């Protein structure tokens, strides 16, 4: 009995010592010496991940020029789903691997090889599937293939998120968020903005050529062929030259688990008290921004801003998205990365009110479809300010996720937190779009009793003496005010919860594992 008690006491002391060591280690000051190559590798892996994401943004533009219906565009939009569904196979990626080859490389190498081969196959047939001359685009084939490509990209994301936790020294794991943000943005910029510019004959003839041509400098088959080989060649180098540094992982953190146990671990993560609080936090944090983020752009276009000119605003925003995380990361590397998140939040909430004012004055500025240059300058400056606050919150949250994620199930842990963060942005945006019309007050010009609240009433108004539905109060403004009130009310609660979560020891974020499971 004494021996049992002594053993339990020893194990408890070991656990306490390990917990203290982990707690102190995670709060060490960042020191990138020795991690420079690892940071460069992570950046490049995230850049590769952004290429198919950018292409999936480019394809709808190409399809639009080929006269496809919006229903077909909606069908193709399913290619974006894998990044929202990857949580379902993340435990498999974490639990099934070949020990001698490496836990992360077991998945990374074949996944990136398949991505490269997919691109090579697409390069030979994509023109036909997009529809040449009088041919109709094969939306079903394009959707299936790009969906599969994004499944691979989402799998690569799981692997790289997990590998980042052990590739970098523990005191530098917050740099993983910078690599993620900068690398993925750079890849998306190449696959979307750069490709669309160089694929356009008008852009190339106007800015890059002295002799006009009917085609752009780049073609989609050529772009896919080039990056297909880049994937294959660089993956070969990683397979041969980059090992997994298991010595950087604490005792018992890298686990050999079966698939069933991996899903049990996922459930165990969700049951952690710290994670329960985090779930509520992430699912409610962005309610205050929903009207601004989801509706403002549409309202500006509705007010008269040409869609193509509004889309060009992405060009000055993209470099900012690349360089801002680099500047912000030095403030998020430390024990309290979410302090930056909470400091940026009031400015982002206030921007919602500014955006509503901008929407209100826009119809008075535009004259016969002509938008003054000074208006675009103001618009770009305001969106740059918005991007700063949004980037602060994104980088801070990613740094926090990297800090608290248990490397034992790193890919699953990071994916869970990222999924919750994405859901916390998606459902308020959907709700904001959904409630604009119900909150909008209208009245028929020829029938005061008709509030034009339904399609039937709108049709009745227009068919009665040529009436029109006059907007008395735009629901967008009501939403903007409600979001502002909800956002600042939430901020008081959120500050307390952030302080609580950041004060928790690292052991509070780890799963209790028996020695048999290690």
TrEMBL record:
Highest taxon listed in the record's lineage: Eukaryota
MF annotations from Gene Ontology: acetyl-CoA transmembrane transporter activity
Any GO BP: acetyl-CoA transmembrane transport
Main subcellular location of this protein, as a coarse class: membrane
Cross-referenced InterPro entries: AcetylCoA_trans_1-like, AmpG_permease/AT-1, MFS_trans_sf
Protein localization: Membrane
Membrane topology recorded in Swiss-Prot or TrEMBL: Multi-pass membrane protein
Segments passing through the bilayer: 39-63, 83-101, 113-130, 142-160, 172-198, 218-241, 310-328, 349-367, 373-401, 476-494
Keywords recorded for this protein, A-Z: Membrane, Transmembrane, Transmembrane helix
Record GO cellular component, one term: membrane
Name listed for the protein in its UniProt record: Acetyl-coenzyme A transporter 1
Organism of this sequence: Vespula germanica (German yellow jacket)
């Amino acid at each position: 009995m004494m021996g049992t008690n002594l053993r339990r006491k020893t194990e408890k002391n070991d656990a306490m010592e390990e917990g203290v060591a982990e707690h102190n280690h995670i709060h060490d000051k960042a020191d990138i010496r020795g991690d420079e190559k690892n940071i460069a590798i992570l950046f490049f892996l995230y850049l590769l991940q952004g290429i198919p994401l950018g292409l999936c943004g480019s394809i709808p533009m190409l399809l639009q020029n080929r006269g496809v219906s919006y229903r077909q565009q909606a069908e193709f939009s399913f290619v974006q789903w894998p990044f929202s569904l990857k949580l379902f196979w993340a435990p498999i990626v974490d639990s099934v691997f070949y020990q001698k080859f490496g836990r992360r490389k077991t998945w990374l190498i074949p996944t990136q090889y398949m991505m490269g081969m997919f691109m090579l196959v697409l390069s030979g047939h994509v023109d036909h599937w997009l529809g040449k001359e009088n041919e109709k685009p094969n939306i079903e084939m394009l959707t299936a293939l790009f969906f599969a490509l994004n499944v691979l990209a989402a799998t690569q994301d799981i692997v790289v998120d997990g590998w980042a936790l052990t590739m970098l020294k523990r005191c530098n794991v917050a740099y993983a968020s910078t690599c993620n943000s900068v690398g993925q943005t750079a890849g998306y910029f190449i696959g979307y903005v750069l490709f669309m510019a160089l694929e356009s004959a008008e852009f190339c003839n106007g800015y890059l050529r002295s002799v006009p041509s009917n085609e752009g400098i780049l073609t989609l088959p050529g772009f896919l062929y080039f990056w297909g080989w880049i994937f294959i060649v660089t993956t070969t180098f990683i397979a041969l030259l980059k090992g997994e540094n298991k010595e950087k992982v604490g005792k018992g953190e890298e686990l050999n688990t079966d698939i069933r146990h991996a899903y049990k671990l996922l459930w165990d993560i969700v049951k952690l008290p710290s994670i329960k609080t985090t779930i509520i936090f992430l699912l409610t944090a962005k309610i205050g921004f929903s009207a601004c983020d989801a509706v403002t752009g549409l309202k500006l276009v509705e007010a008269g801003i040409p869609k193509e000119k509004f889309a060009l605003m992405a060009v000055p925003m993209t470099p900012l998205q690349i360089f801002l995380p680099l500047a912000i990361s030095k403030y998020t590397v430390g024990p309290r990365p979410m302090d930056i998140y909470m400091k940026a939040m009031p400015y982002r909430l206030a921007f919602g009110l500014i955006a509503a004012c901008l929407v209100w004055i826009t119809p008075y500025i535009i004259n016969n479809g002509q938008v003054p240059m000074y208006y675009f300058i103001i618009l770009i400056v305001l969106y740059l300010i918005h991007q700063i606050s949004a980037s602060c919150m994104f980088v801070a949250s990613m740094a926090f996720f990297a800090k608290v994620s248990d490397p034992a199930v790193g890919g699953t842990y990071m994916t869970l937190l990222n999924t919750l963060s994405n859901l916390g942005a998606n459902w308020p945006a959907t709700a904001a779009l959904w409630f604009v019309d119900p909150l909008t007050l209208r009245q028929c010009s020829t029938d005061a009793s008709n509030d034009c609240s339904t399609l039937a009433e709108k049709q009745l108004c227009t068919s009665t003496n040529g009436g029109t539905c006059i907007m008395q109060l735009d629901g967008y403004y009501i939403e903007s005010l409600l979001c502002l009130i909800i956002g600042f009310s939430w901020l008081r609660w959120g500050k307390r919860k952030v302080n609580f979560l950041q004060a928790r020891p690292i052991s509070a974020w780890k799963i209790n594992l028996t020695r048999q499971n290690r």
